[in-house]
Write a structure and sequence with these properties.
Layout lengths: L17 H5 L14 H12 L10 E7 L3 H9 L2 H7 L4 E8 L11 H18 L3 E5 L4 H8 L5 E10 L11 H6 L7 H4 L5
Antiparallel strand pairs: 1-2, 2-4, 3-4
Helix pairs in contact: 2-5
Bound molecules: flavin mononucleotide.
The site of flavin mononucleotide (FMN) has 9 residues, from strand 3.
Length: 195
């Protein structure tokens, strides 16, 4: 099936590398095509090679392909708006921060490091023609219960990953959001100091 997907390349103030400009977060995923295992592994490998405080590597992942019982559990933990579209993704990935070292010492940067790992995951996935959509709208306690997570493992996001689908499969409203231009604050607004 060939998909007519919107091109949503960022309108950048200066050129940036293509994969970053072209990355965007769809809600329409191809509900038929299984995720390419080589590409999924490459995205996880990219996450694995992220930098982290003292090389503590506090990222942990639950990876569930569509059709598995684990995928169903993760989808059930999403808030209604997200579960309405994310079930079409080829896989759902729960990103988990391990908040303490083996000796119980708090890892101050664990959440920062996990976000960076997911950024690496996203960029590798997009470079391989997969699409990624991160979600904060989910019930962390439901995931904790489903996967029997230890106290120091904090689920911070769920990422839908797969092949982009047609916006036509989305309900009205969500479809319009899928096609709308991507926007960002002006670069100048972000620079607290730029001397
Ligand atoms: C931590 C985080 C949480 C997010 N939560 C949701 C969510 O619950 N539902 C959703 O549809 N999108 C969610 N998003 C996607 C953002 O809305 C999206 O990245 C942003 O609007 C920019 O769009 P772009 O990724 O296409 O550039 C989240 C993104 C991040 C990084």
């Amino acid at each position: 099936m060939s998909i007519i997907s919107p091109v949503r390349t960022a309108d950048t103030s200066t050129p940036i590398i293509e994969v970053l400009a072209e990355r965007w977060s769809p809600r329409a995923f191809d509900p038929i095509q299984p995720i390419d295992e080589t590409k999924l592994t490459a995205a996880l490998e990219a996450a694995r090679w992220s930098p982290s405080a003292a090389n503590s590597q506090p990222w942990r992942f639950i990876v569930a392909r569509r059709g598995s019982a684990e995928f169903t559990s993760i989808k059930a933990a999403l808030v209604g708006f997200n579960s309405a579209w994310a079930g079409s993704a080829g896989a759902l990935v729960v990103a988990i921060a391990e908040m303490t070292d083996a000796d119980g010492t708090a890892r101050t940067w664990a959440q920062y490091d996990l976000g960076q790992a997911i950024a690496h995951f996203s960029v590798q996935a997009h470079a391989d023609d997969l699409h990624v959509h991160q979600m904060g709208g989910f019930d962390a306690d439901a995931l904790r219960a489903s996967f029997d997570l230890a106290e120091n493992l904090v689920p911070l996001s769920v990422t839908a990953v797969g092949n982009v689908g047609s916006p036509d499969q989305l309900p009205e409203g969500t479809r319009e959001r899928e096609m709308a231009p991507r926007e960002r604050r002006a670069l100048e607004e972000l620079l607290v100091v730029n001397s």
